[in-house]
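Worked example

This section walks through a single chain of length 165. The input is the sequence exactly as stored; nothing has been trimmed or padded.
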Amino acid sequence: MRKRLPLVLIAVLTGVVMLGPGAPVSSEESQETTLRLFEGMPTFIRDIDEKPKGESPGDWSVVIAPLFDPQTCQRVGRNVGRFVLVRPLRGGDAWAIIDSTLNLRQGRITIYGSFRFSEFFGGGVDHAVTGGTEAFKFARGDVVVGPADLCGQEGSIYEFDLRLD
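Given that input, the structure is written out below as tokens.
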């Protein structure tokens, strides 16, 4: 499996509006917010080539990558993610599934989705926000993830539309 592809595909998150540690969240009122994060080069990546040898359904990768505020390039957390190859297609394209947890000072955000590589490189893919902890408890919404060159490195930009209940 290509070493750089999962890195770029799993790359996840940076901030237009960053929630503070004391952001009010209650079950009685709903709060909508946006969040932008930049995922930089992984500090850990492991590709697992399941049988048959070479790119095939079931191959997977695990990644840990730093998250940065895209405006200041200050580190704000880390992404821990898993990428699974579902079906290779012609011309280097493929269907894949990603699930990931973004660990931020204010809490965690989880995302999940399926996509084609060509969609990612063609402008970004939309994934579901499936939950969170602490300031992001009961988070839902979506995140668009696409390739980006920021903070002096290649990676992914994450643009979240979150609803916190």
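What to look for: The mean pLDDT is 83.
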